[in-house]
What we know:
three-stranded antiparallel sheet, 23% strand
Amino acid sequence: MRANLIVMVVFMVLSGLGQALPARAQESAAQTVEKTYCASATGYTDVDELKAALLASAKREAANEMFGELIAAFTSVENSVVISDQIRTTSVGFVRIQGDPQFGNGQALGEACVTVRAYVTVEDRAKFDPVLREKRHCIVRPELTVTQTREVARQEVVVQALIDYDRRLAERDAAEILPLMQKVEYLESGFVQDTESYCVRITGSIVPIEVIALLDATPIATPTATIVAVAVSPRPVSSNSRNASSDWDWGVWIFLGVFVFLAGLGVWKAIDWLRDL
């Protein structure tokens, strides 16, 4: 009776968790859409490949609906680093699917369809919101003129602010990432009194989706080891080499034969000695 009661309690707790988890997922979803995408199955020889293509297209259409106005507003900003197609491609990765995709036949002959319930979270949409950053950076470059020092310091402080935001940007060229910092304001710029140190302090905004799209669109190339196959031709074997190899083989067999004989003799002697005891 007690064991049955424990089982019932555990079942009720697990059932409650099963109902609570979808509810929590719904609470974190900023927007949910249902999409049905159909396409011709002609040309596909693998069912899994067809399903993957249908699902990718459905997620892309869901991303266009849920992020469309954000992408349009963002890419209209002057001096935008990445184009809308790059941002659209990146935004597809934010789309999540609730439950299992429903696959079936379409109305047209040879047509396959998938229906999904897609959603994005508040955090996903927040990637389109500018993030305010502040940075102070100093340099000592006595070989430069005052004008050159100011320009170098102003460029380096922006680069450092971007690297502080995402360390992966450290492996990019400065010219490529500088436009990622928008609405830059110089709060401080000049030499520290009685020193050769020139310091600049700025504030500016970074839009996360732009950084993500830039890194996704142009991944950093990493060196990979290359395996070089070398064809080795067999070396001709001379008659002397064959004879030497043959003589060596015979010597080995003779040695093994003698060893086995002596070992057997030793065992026989040992048995005979034990019998005498």
